[in-house]
Design brief:
271 residues; 2 domains; six-stranded antiparallel sheet; two-stranded antiparallel ribbon; rod-shaped
Length: 271
Amino acid sequence: MKNPKTLVISLVLGLIALWANCGYLSNQRNEILYQGEMLNTLVATQDIPKNYKLDETMVAVEEVPRKWRQPGALVTKEDIMGQISANPIQKGEQILITKLVSLEDAGLAFKIPKKKRGIAIAVYDINAVGGHVKPGNYVDILGSFDFGQGDKADMRTVTLFQNVNVLAVGDDLGQTIPQNLNGESNIGAENFARATKRNNGTIVVSLSPLDCQKVVLAQEMGTLTLTLRSLWEDQRYVELEKTSIHTAIGIPKKVRYRRRASYRTIREGSF
């Protein structure tokens, strides 16, 4: 061999090139395996329109390669519970957190059934079951009106509407407050205070547009009172007779009526 030194250098360079190539191929292999890793991903099983409440029947968990999994994709069906679609979602599309909005952020309009309207009724403790009415309850709306003349009263009370759904009580829309395994709230102090804010003097109920007109007129002409229906109530409507001052006290004579001064309950933070 004429130049052993050249041969040694060639062998060393060859080994270095082989080592570098093996390292490159190993990195490429690891990258391919990483990008090809199958990850659980939530996918829509049907077309979901905008402003639609999602449930577990609309989605499925599928394995998707990491490379094709979109940022913000959800993983489990529990992730979409109580969420609203902020944009249309097509069948087969991955469910992204950026396309959903919570019930609280969706606002009261989402809770109003189709062909209904939300209308606020001014209340205080004495005409709203002592403040025990909660969102999701059902109430009857009673109206008391004076049909008398001069200083003679002819007060009559009638049940205007039965089985009326309560949408909100003040700022409370009825959302549950998420908790961790220790039973503690998962939301911040500011959001917790907002979620638990007390009644500000209004109860919002769901009625037809025509019935909303009746409520507005009834509030202007008389006094409205809410009665709370039992959760175990079977009858949606009950036949009732109109009550007058005569049938209430059993005396068939007109009585003098002293109109009470209007008042409301003032609580801390109600202004």
